[in-house]
Amino acid sequence: MTKTSTEVRGDSGPAMAELVASRVLDVPDFPKPGVVFKDLMPLFADGPAFRQVIDGIVDHHGRDSFDVVVGIEARGFVIAAAIAYATGVGVVPVRKAGKLPRAAYAASYALEYGEATLEVHQDAFTAGHRVLVVDDVLATGGTAQATLELVERAGGSVAGFSVLLELSFLNGRERLTPRPVHALLTV
Fold first, then answer.
1. Cβ contact 166:185 at 8 Å
2. Global pTM value
3. Of 75, 95, 119, 173, which one is the catalytic site residue?
4. Which helix (H) or strand (E) holds 177?
5. CA-CA 20 to 30 A from 157: which of 92, 94, 130, 137?
């Protein structure tokens, strides 16, 4: 990253923001020309750093504030599984269309570089399940908004939403208002 420690910010403080920022690689023109992909794989590959970000998300929400974690395909799966393991709760995937084997709810949304559809099993939650939703990056908010709506349609109650990286210039947080957004790093 090109940011200095005085320029990084995030909802869990500057130290956590700097930790994430130091392990993000910019990949220009991926998945198409003009898009700069934020690659968080170096963070996932660094065991101690990854543990710190997972603990940071758990600390922010509290271990007893959710019953299950939803991860958004695909990198959200990595984060959700780690949080679920750390807190002893279950994990539910929200997948791209056509990937789930049983009856599913679907929601379509626009991305900054196209359109997509997400699905969740209709029986993913019991009534009143408190659900923490996590993903790697918040961009335009389309993916997050569709996922939060799917959780509620399937009977869950959204207990929180966290991302490792928020691209503030795409205004995704505003799209999710009034729901609170927790981002470890905001650029």
1. yes
2. 0.93
3. 75
4. none
5. 137
